[in-house]
Specification:
This protein is an all-alpha fold. It is built from one helix and no strands. The chain has one helix at residues 6-81. It is rod-shaped and about 125 Å long.
């Protein structure tokens, strides 16, 4: 039975250790990337929701203003049709 020189054994152990660290680190990096993508996706959905809510509020406000303008126009027309009472 042959013995492996101590330097070669230590080198192999160090290499395996760094391979393990790289593997675990790689998995951690993959988890971080997945988490980042999920956060970005959630952020996009939240941004889209906020934009849609803003559009809805603007359109509702616009509709309300149009109704108000219509009522004011009707009142002005009614006032113009009434004969002046002096």
């Amino acid at each position: 039975m042959e013995f492996i020189p101590v330097e070669d054994a230590l080198s192999a152990i160090v290499t395996l250790f760094f391979a393990y660290v790289a593997l675990v680190g790689g998995v951690s990096v993959m988890k971080l990337i997945a988490l980042d993508q999920e956060i970005r996706s959630n952020t996009k959905r939240q941004t889209q929701f906020i934009n849609e809510l803003g559009d809805l509020l603007v359109s509702r406000f616009g509709e309300k203003m149009l109704r108000r303008e219509k009522r004011i126009g009707e009142k002005l027309s009614a006032l113009q049709r009434e004969p002046e009472k002096t």
